Amino acid sequence: MSHSTVHPLVVKNLTKTIQGRVIIDNLSFQLERGKIYGFLGPNGAGKTTTIRLIAGLITPTKGDIYIEGHHVQKDKLKALSHIGAIVENPELYTYLTGKENLIHFARMSKTSVSEERIQQLTKFVGLEDAIHHKVKTYSLGMKQRLGIAQALLHKPSVLILDEPSNGLDPAGIRHLRDYLKDISKKENISILVSSHILQEVELMSDKVIIIQKGKYVNEINVKGQNSAELDTKVAFTVSENQLLQALKIVEKYGNAESDNKRVITGFVHYKKIPDIIFDLANDGIKVYECTPLKTSLEDQFLLLTEQKEGSL
């Protein structure tokens, strides 16, 4: 199988039941090569369990995971040789230096890791000055960066990070974001980043996969968002005395609220905007302005998960 035709990671009908409780429920998604995916869901949605399943730390009850076309259960060594993962905290030996840690993990790698690769990654994560110091002297951000270097030693094509910005200060988070963007381009790696910081995910990701209660909810294209496919926040400015009449019409198309003066904000499907304007005009309502507002990932996330919650 050539790399071009195979998705780096495919999760297919994945189910995980623990003590009779369904944690992951028939979950399917796949990653495109060289893209960064945010992995979002409310607390307890099953993000960490999914990551542990992909990393081969636990076995699924049902379903399949393929990494570069290799089945994680049936061909574990081959599959996992293409993946780098930091689940919870990077496993580091604090009594060794950064360099000694990398050498140790390089020796454990199935593929040989050159001294040049170690130097390249040290530079890449900005640890040249600290690499000969003991890891116990490192800040949290430095440990995260060393963990990423370690996860990349064997040139994986998939990198999976579970809450990588935990405990980092804003500068550390920004550095981490820059490294990940850089690396996905330079090494053509697909990255799956689970996080609860929505703004962070929005700044870093190309796409976002949302799960809830172990089920797939949606995939949102963050970069180059195709607004025609999305629910959009739209502000309609109408005559003050027609506000309530207009609100009733917009509400037929989605969630809507008014500012009690002249503006109605509706959360509606982009393709329905002309219909709304037509209905308003047809009802004799004067529409002075119609302004689509950029929908933040947070708006979409809350809308999707709340809708889901209501329909369960």
From TrEMBL:
S-adenosyl-L-methionine as a keyword of this entry, yes or no, is no
- Pfam families (alphabetical): ABC_tran
Question: Which GO terms fall under molecular function for this chain's record?
Answer: ATP binding
Domain ABC transporter residues, every copy: 9-238
Which UniProt key words apply to this protein? ATP-binding, Nucleotide-binding, Transport
Q: Which family does it belong to?
A: Belongs to the ABC transporter superfamily.
Q: Which PANTHER family match?
A: ABC TRANSPORTER, ATP-BINDING PROTEIN
Q: What is this protein called?
A: ABC transporter ATP-binding protein
